[in-house]
Amino acid sequence: MIPYWMSRSQLLLGDEKITHLMQQHVLVVGLGGVGGICAEMIARAGIGKMTIVDADVVDLSNCNRQIAALHTTAGLRKAEVLAQRLRAINPELDLTVLPQYLQEEQLEALLQPGAFSYVLDCIDTLGPKVALLRICVERGLPVASAMGAGGKTDPSQVRVADIQQSYDCKLAKYVRKRLNEKGVREGIQVVFSPEKIDEDRVIVTEKAFLKKTLIGTISYMPAIFGCTLASVAIRELMD
Asked: Are strands 49-53 and 25-29 parallel, antiparallel or unpaired?
């Protein structure tokens, strides 16, 4: 039975597609500016089962762009904050919460063939990102990935394409190179923007966990990337 809170989606899509979405299991890895809103859009679309993954805690510097970030949630695990929010959206959601940083070995164990209807990659560190994408392609798991939203301000330049058709995005360049070295050349939908970055807004630092740089961000761009990424999965699952 389709719950009342989904009645507007039901009106748009019809019973068959909504019922199908309610039977799917979507994995979202990374719950920052892109991943947090992506996970919420997946839940609001009526996906019946979700797994969310993130080891990070909310920092006040996240408040300009991350849906989990409030002054009242500072210091709390993003995965736990999002879990509470997602369950408040859909009390019947079958939700698995993994507040942990997944190395390649853990990703190998998690990403079993057929385990997920769709995998959404919102990781912002290169090694785990490439590992997740490689494993998904090798094991036939449908996957879409967010490239770099930092340093961008123009929503009109956001694109969806196969990873090999992405361009003028530094993160996409590095991901393509690493994947090509591992024999993965296509089959991954990515959200990216070719908008040029002002390099004066990039800071080299040792304080960014697992990253060498910090880059400026604006409130709406990670959310646009996240909503677009969620739409890729939702539309493909409906079809």
From this structure: parallel
